[in-house]
Amino acid sequence: MVDAAVIKKTQDSLGKVIKKPPLTEKLLSKPPFRYLHDIISEVTKSTGFLEGLFEDNEKIAANVKDKESKIQYLQKAIDAVGLVLGSQLGVRPSKIIAGQEPEKTNEFLQYLGRCAAKGADNEVVKRVKKGEKPGKKSKSGEDSNRSKERRSSKEGGERKSKAGKERDTSKSKERVGSKERSKERVSGSSKERGSKERPERGRRERSKDDKKGKAKSSEQVAEKKDSSEERRKEKGRREEERAKEKEERRRRKERVSGS
Fold it and tell me: How far apart are alpha carbons 137 and 8 in whole angstroms?
């Protein structure tokens, strides 16, 4: 047996969109296929929801007799509701027509009433006819999405590649700029050292020149001293020679006088 609260919930949901068939506790406790067909047909008539989903022969309950056609009919309605909700329902058509899982059948009817309250949805009907299932895409939709994903992936890869190249170019420029700045700093430092070293070199050279000048001056003084000393010595020798000559002349005179 279905809980009374579940049936009440189904009555409230469907009662907002249809007036018939009667939503009795007895029928909702174990809904037969014909009763469900009447509910779905009335929902479509009253709200436009599921309009165009079924073939003309399916709109007449007497034409939907065998198990396979009943399952196909209910599956369309279940798929449409699931697509609107965005999730797959737990109810199975084979269980419904077998009179099993009435609570899940009521759950489907509650969702049917909720979706129908939103009005017609032609897009959902088209999706069901294409074979799309709740939580799944139709084959054509899947191919389209895969194609979009491949394009997106390719574009993303190209963007990443381009961004990578730009980063590499930027890093290369930064390295070149860094090297140039380093060279400038080295050059500037060398110039500064050169400008500092030039006065120092000038002072050292002047100091050397001064020392050389002093050395030359000392040598000149020494040379002058030596020259003066030699002149004195030469003068002394000449004086000694003159004195000897005088003495020699005097002695010769004395010998002459004595003879």
Answer: 34
